[in-house]
Amino acid sequence: MGKHLAVDIGSESGRISVGYLKNGKLIIEELHRFKTQFMQAHRKSVRNIYRYHEEIIIGLKKYVEKYGDTLDSIGVDSWGGDFVLLDRKGNICKLPESYRATSAASDVSEIIEKEYGLKKIYEHTGNQAMPTDTLSQMLRMIRDNDPSMDDPHAILFMGDVYHYLLGAEICCEHSLAGYSRFYNNNIDCWDESIMKGLQIPLSICTKVVCAGDTIGQIDPVIQKNVGLKKSVNIITPCTHDTSCAALAIPDMGTDWMFISSGTWSLMGMETDYPIINEISYKYNFSNSSMPLKTNMFKKNIQGMWIIQQCREAWGNQISYEEIVSEAAKVEENHLYIDVDREEFYAPGNMPMAIVNAVKRDFHEEIDWKNVSVIARICFESLALKYRYFYDKLIQAADKKISKIYIIGGGSNNQLVNQYTANVIGLQVYTGVTEGSNVGNLLLQLYGSGELSSKQEMRQCVCDTFSKYNYSPQNVQMWNEKYHFFENEISHEAQW
Question: Which of 104, 107, 98 is nearest to 340 (CA)?
Fold first, then answer.
């Protein structure tokens, strides 16, 4: 069986793993991990995509050192929203800027409403409106006369960028093209009416490919420099990391919902077609493609970002495991926040933002350095927000759900897993912590012909990973917590 390299570029770190099939199971080994935080340059926070590219080269060299000079394929997945533009000679116009530098309140909604219509865009695309989405970023560039908009010739989303730098053709994989807010998911193509209405150049309508497609080979110079003897196929996974992660669900049925837990929590389900109706519009739910062109219907929820920022404010001296342990020491909690409020989007001091919200809503004083209490508030509030959107997603999709899978790094948080089971009242399963990597590798195996269908890919996950179960506990108490949260704390969708 062939060997494949999965590159998963997250907002906090990047991971490079080798994977291959052995007796029907997926064998995975992490080869390289690196930080991906923003870089300050010329008074702007930017993503240094060239450094990330260098880290991929390091990962290739580590592969050769351990596994030899033959590699069958490589593929990259990453987050959604961000992009680069290419000029007419194929040069990258500028580095992507930090989305956290943008206000959580969309500053271009008025432009969209005036020139085209917010609801009309949703009816065409089924995409959520966020200050960080591709359309909003593009409109800011047009409004601010950004020079990179003068004569752009292609758009590449983050996963596509690294494929291109490795040697692939200029193309966009479907899962992030369809997430851009100017791709029509009803008729499956770039939406020229939106682009013309908002003065987005049609010249950026890059060729769209699908997960599992071979889109080129590693540049021969790179191949030689890392020590590979034969050409290496670049097989695109879903470049949207959440779509890869949602593929890595160890279940052969369809009656599940997933929560991909990381910096953001992405809560959703797989459907046969986009869900676009009054409920999905009201709550700002999104549609984008899953592997083999099924649909991912989901909601973005502020995730472990809040606790990441608390940890930073506390000096990074305490581990995430210790934070969970401290939160578990709190015998009873009655304080909650709505994790999706703008005040928690990018505050200078996250614990102080939580302290101020508690003082405003509960008229109680807590110490911003009290790790136990603040972490407990964060973890319970996150689970309560999961329940809030679980109810709304079920209502919009009209689909029967009997279990929840929490995947990604955040699935290591046993408290949140248990709280989620308690408040939703369903069995919660974990076990696939690196879901994006797993889905990435499965799609390369599919593109290489080693797996032939989504059923085979999911069966491979079932055969490879053990599941851990969390059963609902203290259901009545958690229902009381939720009803208070729903009536007094939660608010309608902001993004």
Answer: 104
Percent of the chain with pLDDT over 90: 89
Span 90-128, pLDDT tens digits: 999 999 987 666 555 568 889 999 999 999 999 999 999
DSSP character at residue 365? -
Q: Using an 8 Å Cβ cutoff, are 408 and 260 in contact?
A: yes
**CB atoms near residue 363 (< 10 Å):** 7
d(CA 434, CA 247): 12
Which among 51, 41, 76, 264 has a CA at the least distance from the CA of 158?
76
**CB half-sphere exposure, 110, CA atoms < 13 A:** 3
Burial classification of residue 40, based on how many CB atoms lie within 10 Å of its CB (0-12 exposed, 13-18 middle, 19 or more buried)? exposed
| CA neighbor of 121 nearest in space, from 193, 200, 188 | 193
Asked whether the beta carbons of 452 and 218 are under 8 A apart, the reply is: no
Q: Could you give the residue ranges of the DSSP H alpha helices within 398-491?
A: 414-424, 435-447, 454-464, 475-484
Q: Report the alpha-carbon distance of residue 363 to residue 366 in Å, rounded.
A: 10
**What is the token pair recorded at 346?**
């990018």
Q: How many Å separate Cα 367 from the centre of its chain?
A: 32
Residues 6+ apart with CB under 8 A from 62: 16, 31, 32
